[in-house]
Write a structure and sequence with these properties.
With 380 residues, the chain is mainly alpha-helical. The protein folds into two domains: 2-240, Rhopdopsin 7-helix transmembrane proteins (Up-down Bundle), CATH 1.20.1070; 249-379, Homeodomain-like (Arc Repressor Mutant, subunit A). 68% of the residues lie in helices and 0% in strands. It has 16 helices and no strands. α2 runs antiparallel to α9 and α3 (61-82) packs antiparallel against α5. The radius of gyration is 27 Å and the shape is elongated.
Length: 380
């Protein structure tokens, strides 16, 4: 197990160096570096403390305390910055780092040697008053932050679909995987402790043995999916940045459009989509279409949500799928590659094309093409 911990430590160090080497770093990059350093320090502590769970590990334990105090707040701040909610580091972001001060207050007597307790566990069990409150916050504050980060990303997923027709890279799935990994890490840690408390017996599998393995796996996936996400390890973060109306439009979803204005805008939308085919542009955004229609983003958003019962992403993809179906029905399309048809219809990737097509038709584009042309052959 010790070897696994050192592997994770090396991975965290390596990925930190990759981000530091980026030519153009954003504010969130520095928080990701801090996050990786925290995890690396925790793995270094685990490497040195395996087999010594009941012994006091001198200054190395500060790594463990700092990790539990900060990995949640840093994760939340990084999430805010990545999805574009906070452009610049502000005072309220600094407030989220206060748990570290609370943690240091809670462990100061133990860490500075002003206590006779030989281990943190015995120190925790015998604490009371403000010290106990501080220790409880140290124990649970980061998990709360991580769960809030997950909720934030979940809301972001739906928000993205209201403003973009191409969501590749904008849902930041790698960050979702990172957060889910750390939620599993926390749940595993707590579940073992709760079981031992309730059952009043020790498990052969100690949390101190298996947690380094989970952390190392989390670091590996951070690297793997982070490399596939634009802007994490190399300078190309444009896909992560929303347009100017992205976070402002929510308060305008009820814009007070009259029924006559709604009907007129619906007719204009239908006519424009059929004649001009703006959906062919793979990176079409809500703001782009609103400008083409001579209206405002919040009004267009209201019409799509209330009258068409669709978000922008599904609305545009419906037209793209219909366009691809027209092409697939053409006998000439048999000689064309499916991906060529996808690009001609406005899709930017194979996965988005197949997912949208199956959602509407229940079958893949290839099967639809064969079904259409086989029925034509039988009819002839």
């Amino acid at each position: 197990m010790k070897e696994i911990a050192i592997v994770g430590f090396v991975q965290a160090f390596f990925f930190s160096v990759l981000i530091i080497a980026k030519k153009k770093k954003e504010t969130q990059d520095y928080f990701l570096i801090s996050f990786l350093i925290l995890v690396g320090a925790e793995l270094f502590y685990k490497y040195n403390s395996l087999g010594q769970l009941n012994d006091k590990n001198s200054w190395l334990e500060i790594f463990d305390f700092t990790f539990w105090a900060l990995f949640g707040p840093i994760c939340l701040i990084y999430t805010y910055l990545t999805i574009g909610r906070v452009k610049l580091l502000r005072l309220r972001m600094i407030i989220h780092l206060c748990p570290l001060l609370i943690a240091l207050y809670g462990v100061k007597d133990y860490f500075l040697g002003e206590t006779l307790y030989s281990s943190y566990l015995s120190y925790f069990n015998e604490s009371s008053g403000l010290i106990l409150v501080s220790l409880l916050l140290l124990e649970y504050i980061s998990p709360i932050y991580v769960i809030f980060s997950l909720i934030l990303l979940y809301k972001h997923k739906f928000r993205v679909r209201n403003f973009y027709s191409n969501i590749s890279g904008k849902e930041v799935r790698w960050l979702m995987i990172l957060i889910l990994g750390f939620i599993f890490f926390v749940l595993f840690s707590y579940s073992i402790s709760i079981y031992e408390e309730i059952a009043n017996q020790k498990l052969r599998l100690q949390t101190n043995d298996i947690l380094p393995v989970i952390l190392t796996i989390c670091i590996f996936f951070i690297g793997y999916f982070g490399y596939r996400q634009k802007g994490v390890f190399y300078s190309d973060s444009d896909d992560l940045q929303p347009d100017n109306t992205f976070f402002k439009a929510k308060k305008y979803l009820r814009s007070g459009l009259s029924e006559d204005e709604k009907k007129e805008l619906i007719l204009r939308i239908n006519r424009f989509m059929q004649t001009e085919k703006p959906y062919i542009e793979c990176d079409l955004r809500m703001g782009d279409l609103a400008e083409m229609l001579g209206t405002e983003s919040h009004k267009l958003s209201q019409i799509l949500n209330e009258s068409f019962n669709q978000n922008f992403y599904d609305f545009i993809n419906k037209y793209r799928v219909e366009e691809s179906m027209k092409i697939l029905r053409d006998p000439v399309s048999i000689k064309s590659k499916i991906m060529s048809i996808a690009y001609d219809s406005g899709f930017s990737s194979k996965s988005s094309f197949y997912n949208a097509f199956r959602k509407i038709n229940g079958i893949t584009p290839g099967k639809y093409q064969k079904k259409v042309h086989s029925s034509v052959s039988i009819a002839n």
